[in-house]
Amino acid sequence: MLRQWHFLITAIVFGMLGWSSALYVSTFPAPFKKNIWDAIFVSFAGPGMWGTSILEMLRWFVPHLLFFYLIGDMAEGELQYRGPLVIPLVGSRRLWWLGKITTLFILAIGYTVFGIVTTIIGAAIALPWAMDLSPFLRSGALWTVPDTMNVMALLAWFVSLISSTLFAISLLQITLSVWWRRAFYAFTSISALMLLSWLLGIDNPILVRWLPGSQSMLLRHTIFDSGVPNHSLAWSLGYNIVIVTVVFWTSIWHVHHVDIWNPTADIHLKEER
């Protein structure tokens, strides 16, 4: 399912993200030295609790939107056009679906790591490399960063939050696409869900940790914003695991019953024999 243009467009999007974030950081006059990790933080920290900036939202939203677009047709398209051939070749519907879920998990992690690496390369055009967070980032001039935070811990937060959220939400997406037999409807619904997470959480700190999209917003976690109660890394990972578990068992049942012999139907359930 992977094409060369998938890698190309992903590299362009994340490279531009890193470069533009580096330029954004460079515009702030400050007596503290800046480095590449300022741009990485801006690129992946997500919108803040009280922030209404469309630019901040887009930095967070566009990489998610791109992933949902790239994987949107991975299950429904194959089921619609090659289901009667692929399913018997694989051996069973459940095995086919487990293969899709495993592929999605690998893609979510790979996409996140590839995106971060490409963003670092893009940011290096405008800011110097360093082995630690900059004095500017630690100063708290713009963001509150814990004193114990270092580069490896920050990267671990980014990879954990982004990849787990991408996996959970995109699993819901491909399940809806098979359920509705319309990949575009599922893509639109998931995109709207992410936007609502941003909007509803802007001035509702109590609601933040219950919103799906908030799980990948670093700045809406308690360790970075004390005004948001009980929103930790463990909570976000647990939240995403619950989504995956519920969607997994629901999708297993549906894929076992969906009518692969009539791909033009909207929703058809195979009768039990």
Overview of the molecule:
The chain is 63% helix and 0% strand. It is mainly α and 273 residues long. It has one domain (4-257). α2 packs antiparallel against α5 (93-123), α5 crosses α7 and α7 (151-180) runs parallel beside α9 (233-257). It is globular. The two termini are 33 Å apart.
In short:
It is built from 9 helices and no strands. The protein is mainly alpha-helical.
Rg on CA atoms, Å:
20 Å
Order of helices and strands: HHHHHHHHH
- Strand residues, percent: under 5%
How many domains, in number, for the residues? Answer: 1
**Tally of contiguous helical segments:** 9
Taking the alpha carbons of the first and last residues, their distance comes to 33 Å
Helix content: 55-70%
Spans of at least 5 consecutive residues with low confidence: 263-273
Alpha-beta classification: mainly alpha
Largest sheet: none
